[in-house]
Specification:
Layout (H helix, E strand, L loop, with lengths): L1 E4 L4 H8 L6 E2 L14 H17 L6 E12 L2 E3 L5 H11 L3 E12 L5 E12 L4 H10 L19 E5 L11 H10 L6
Parallel strand pairs: 1-2, 1-3
Antiparallel strand pairs: 3-4, 3-5, 5-6, 6-7
Helix pairs in contact: 3-4
């Protein structure tokens, strides 16, 4: 059965390529705004499922469609992708010395059976107390404008933390690989 990743994220593509040799990518077209009073876990799961369904509607062949979305949460507020250096530095300053929770929703939709598997992995990070100089240096060396939280876990971003608590560090990159492998096995696909 064909595998489809409902994403245009180069980070998710790279992670999936580590376990699946051949897959298609379809960019989902969904509204990612939170609903009124929607908590971060419900938001991440809903968006992951909507992405999978959106991509499933764009494929004509039988497929397993993978959707994923991440919501970063600090003190009752959602952190978005910074978009530019100034916002990146401001966001990291705001995270300095604090716990930030990342809710990574994963959905796997089977277009033949119409079965949807979905769950949310929660990863809690504790940022070190970061000086303005450290933040500026980090943003200069590794701009992370397209990453929720404003860092790249797979790169220099690891140096920003004191602690990471969660089942799968890949969740911070945007695709919970342990859970994905479980979903694939449950769907009859052996990933390696």
């Amino acid at each position: 059965m064909k595998i489809v990743l409902a994403s245009s994220s180069k980070y998710r593509k790279h992670l999936l390529s580590q376990i699946i040799d051949t897959f298609d990518c379809i960019s989902p077209n969904i509204n990612e705004q939170a609903l009124a009073d929607e908590d971060p876990k419900a938001l991440a799961q809903r968006l992951a499922e909507q992405k999978a369904l959106s991509a499933a509607n764009k494929t004509s062949e039988p497929a397993l469609v993978i959707g994923s979305d991440q919501v970063a949460w600090l003190n009752g507020q959602q952190l978005h992708k910074p978009g530019n250096a100034e916002n990146n530095m401001e966001q990291l300053t705001h995270c300095s010395g604090k716990h930030v929770s990342f809710y990574t929703g994963l959905a796997l939709f089977n277009t033949q059976t119409k079965k949807m598997l979905s769950l949310v992995e929660i990863t809690t990070t504790r940022f070190r107390r970061l000086s303005p100089n450290e933040i500026s240096r980090y943003v200069l060396k590794e701009p992370s404008f397209d990453c929720a939280g404003g860092f790249k876990m797979e790169g220099l971003g690891i140096s920003l933390f004191e602690e990471i608590i969660g089942r799968d560090p890949n969740s911070l990159i945007g695709l919970p690989m342990i859970l994905l492998c479980e979903f694939l096995r449950e769907s009859g696909i052996e990933a390696p």
